[in-house]
Amino acid sequence: MSRTTSDCFVYVGTYTRGQSKGIYLYRFAAGTLTPQGLAAESSDPSFLAVSPDHRYLYAANEISTYEGQKSGSVSAFSIDRETGKLRLLNVVASGDPGPAHLTVDHTGKYALVANYGVGSVAVFPILADGRLGKATAHLPHAGHSVNPRRQRGPHAHSIYTSPDNRFALSPDLGTDQVYVYRFDAAQGTLVPNRPPFVAVAPGTGPRHLAFDPRGRFAYLVQEFGGILTVFSWDADGGILHQRETFPAAPRDYQGYNNCAEVFVHPNGKFLYVANRGHDSIGVYAINPVEGTLTPVEYASTQGKTPRSFALDPTGSCLIAANQESNTLVGFRLDPKTGHLTPTGQKLDIQAPACVVFAPTG
Known about the structure:
It contains no helices and 28 strands. By secondary structure, the chain is mainly beta.
């Protein structure tokens, strides 16, 4: 039986420096979110990832000190497939301060983590019971760039595995580079590729990245100035080739803007980008041959600072998380045109930082 939008849990990671206590749970049915309360207490779970089998959830705890050491942490939870509640399995040190992002590789055997604080990436094996084991890789980034306040050193902002799981890519905000590693999914190791990175314009601050479903193109959002860069992807050599770069907000927008999240629709026809400052979701049509982008619309998130958003598994709905106005806002998504239409639902939540979907049952 095919899944529909009625089959989902939604988890929202938050910053817990205020009233929030961790990861919050919602039921999602027919485009509507129903709050289910706190799924699990956790310290600053600012990014979440669900395992491919939907049995486990992993959280990057964006803290600076863990168990007296200068390190953030990563938490592993099991998912109750009936209630959606989370049960803590274990917590491990991320290796360096401020882990800002993590992903689970396509085999479901490893969690890859980007430590923003000093710029490093790490790999942790996922054990048979979902717990995280001892790190199998930990590689520091090096360098700096032109922004005197934000780029004095490396800041690994995210990490992703390529569609074929042979490479791992890490946009680094501090060095204006996207690092590329050869990823061994049998051993959980990372080896710098040749070349080991691709550089972007100085002072633009690479943040997040998304591949198209066929693995031909990659789309990078750069935080400073809200820049969007399109690459073709050489899957054999693990090499990014830049194709075009332009502002992610409307070209006539004169205010400050920086980008946060980016996703490609499951049908590969549209790209979605979160604009903070313009406070919108930018929608772009993807040229199926060249991978280049044409603006479709800029949909207001009806709040301030959309740090995160996510598409439901069917690609028919989008949930935006407005960090500074403390709201979740729902949209219906037309897979044929890419357009977003507000559902009228706006829910209060303190400092939302990440949204992920997980099928129920």
